[in-house]
Hints:
Shape: globular
Number of helices: 5
Amino acid sequence: MFCQAALTRGWETYVTSDPHEALKFMCRHSIKLALIDFQDVSEANSDNFRNLAEYIKWVGGVLLVVNGPVNDSQLQDGSVELWARQLGAWSYLPGILPQSDLTDLCEQALQVVEKLHHPQR
């Protein structure tokens, strides 16, 4: 859903379920918007995705959207939402439902990126 919404609003997309592949992609390409989806991530792989998000924030210049699991408050290692907000994610989604329309989010992200990277316009 996010990929389709992003394409609709003019974003180029790259989708992977492997955080290491995402990191490789980031090293080769300039990205301005990243979505890290914790909705279906196993507890064992959660740390890899958290590390990726922390790297994205460290690099800077990238809007970070975190999609948390629907049962976020029940996770053993704490709330993904709390962690994402402490990290400084641009947006937090509390679990994307199949009927969710994310085109407005992608449009807003495009406007923010334009202001961040071309402030004189």
